[in-house]
């Protein structure tokens, strides 16, 4: 069984983000292999490919674009974070990451679905696995290996990787809105989810 190691390298808001408004770029690296970084705001990592799932989070305060470099035995590769917001970088060499927003509605609890909605989810999942209906508008994402994607303009959006479950409930804000939560899975996991959905429909 694969183990999961999550390393949080986040900037303290009190001294930085709070004084800089929303000029923040947040990056979550999801990888298969070992990640090494000098600090929470490092713009360079050393990556050793492997089979163990790892995640590491970075945060940058300021308006300037950020260039993020990955050093590995295959050479250096640089990724650009040009706008404020939350990003995911997929360093899983053999896995595409599939992601979407979690719909908590206005109650902070995942919304129930009808049979028709379940059929739509099955159809959409089938297409998403093939990379056919990923879009910023639908808030669905298809990240091939060694690619980066801005997920949300909200740098506080919660980005949940493979092997980590979503919260059963979240706290809504004073306006009754649930926080942004996005769940990412490998294509294998997504296919398993699809089989479960189809089985649920047939019962």
TrEMBL record:
> What taxonomic classification does the UniProt entry list for its organism?
Bacteria, Pseudomonadati, Bacteroidota, Chitinophagia, Chitinophagales
Q: From what organism does this protein derive?
A: Pseudobacter ginsenosidimutans
The protein here is known as Lipoprotein
| Lineage: superkingdom | Bacteria
């Amino acid at each position: 069984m694969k183990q999961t190691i999550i390393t949080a390298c986040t900037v303290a808001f009190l001294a930085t983000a709070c004084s800089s408004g929303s000029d923040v770029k947040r990056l979550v690296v999801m990888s298969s292999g070992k990640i090494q970084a000098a600090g929470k705001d490092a713009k360079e990592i050393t990556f050793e490919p492997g089979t163990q799932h790892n995640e590491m989070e970075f945060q940058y305060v300021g308006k300037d674009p950020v260039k993020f470099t990955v050093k590995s035995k295959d050479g250096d590769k640089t990724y650009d974070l040009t706008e404020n917001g939350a990003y995911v970088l997929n360093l899983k060499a053999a896995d595409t990451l599939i992601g979407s927003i979690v719909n908590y509605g206005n109650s902070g609890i995942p919304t129930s679905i009808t049979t028709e909605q379940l059929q739509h989810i099955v159809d959409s999942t089938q297409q998403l696995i093939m990379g056919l209906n990923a879009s910023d508008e639908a808030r669905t994402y298809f990240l091939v290996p060694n690619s980066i994607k801005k997920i949300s303009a909200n740098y506080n959006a919660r980005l949940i990787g493979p092997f980590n479950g979503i919260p059963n409930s979240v706290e809504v804000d004073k306006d009754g809105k649930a926080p942004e939560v996005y769940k990412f899975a490998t294509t294998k996991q997504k296919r398993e989810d699809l089989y479960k959905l189809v089985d649920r429909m047939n019962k």
